[in-house]
Amino acid sequence: MAENQSDIAKQLFEHQENIILMYAFNATGKTRLSVAYKDYSKSENDGNHAGVYYNAFSEDLFQWENDEDNNNENIALKINFSSLSQFHSFLDVKDIEEKLAIYNPKYKFDFNLDDNPERGIESVTFFIDEENKTPIKISRGEERIFVWCFFLALFEVETWAGEQDAHLFIDDPVSSLDEHNIFITAESIFDLIEKSYLKKRIIISTHHIGLFSILFNWLKKGDRSAKYKELTKACILSNKNGDLELKNPSGDVFLYHLHLLQTLDEARKEQLYKFHIVLLRQVLENIASFLGSPRPGFVLSEIGLDDTAMAMDMLNSLSHKNAYQFQVNVMSEGEETLFNEIFGKLLTKYNFKF
Fold first, then answer.
1. What's residue 154's pLDDT?
2. How far apart are CA 48 and CA 219, in angstroms?
3. What is the pLDDT of residue 88?
4. What angle do CA 13, 59, 75 make, to 5 degrees?
5. Coil, helix or strand for 15?
């Protein structure tokens, strides 16, 4: 298996595209592949690190110190010492707060520095009450978001990312996140691509079919795709009897629109947010492409919607970046009515099973 991972790492390294978007089921070997890619790229760079990484090992650097002997009085998120600790001095609280802003966190935090400056930040204390700063433990999802934003800030530290600037490998930053925060994380990844794609190779791997779908559409099909689509390689990492293989996504092996339909069906039974309009538009684009049309409005006509122009105006306006940058708003009554009409007609017309 290790040798096979090296072969796949070599394939990724030799791809001509600057942006590689890779989907794989859990336990396929994505994290091990990111390590194999690191090792291969080092071998091609005289044994020196050539890029920067975010993966499960990055998340494992953060562990809770629960202070159980003192009834959690000084509970904090500990940052284990690593080669990255030397770069902590380039970060401050505001750097992380800027990255966290789009997630609308309900907490504040402080860094606790190690007595030895070379060891960087020892831990992070979270609190809600800014006057007393009583330490709290944030949820698993909130923790994952914080760690992701911590690394987003580290990616901008020139002393680290500026020297190891050949590539950026991001493996699954969305574990334990709900659909809303996965959508926001997709936007933060897209912003990172936008800043870096001309300067370095960017590889994003994920087990989450929704995250893959969102990024795939933005990079290959969406309104902003013109400058990315020829530079983007989408692929599926499969593991068959221990042998890894990179495949091209196709309709018969990668029906991610079914996952989106399931996500939307669950949302309409609980709470619809404006970003669900963006996901609905992606479903329409996927169906239109399958039917041989480049226009999602074609599907609206096929399902018998009366005013397709008005519906497309709403879908397009809410799919613009500024509409979902801080997407915490629920749909208006009119938006929800139109959403339900389109979604219901889709299910009736095409009889999807999910």
1. 92
2. 31
3. 94
4. 165
5. coil
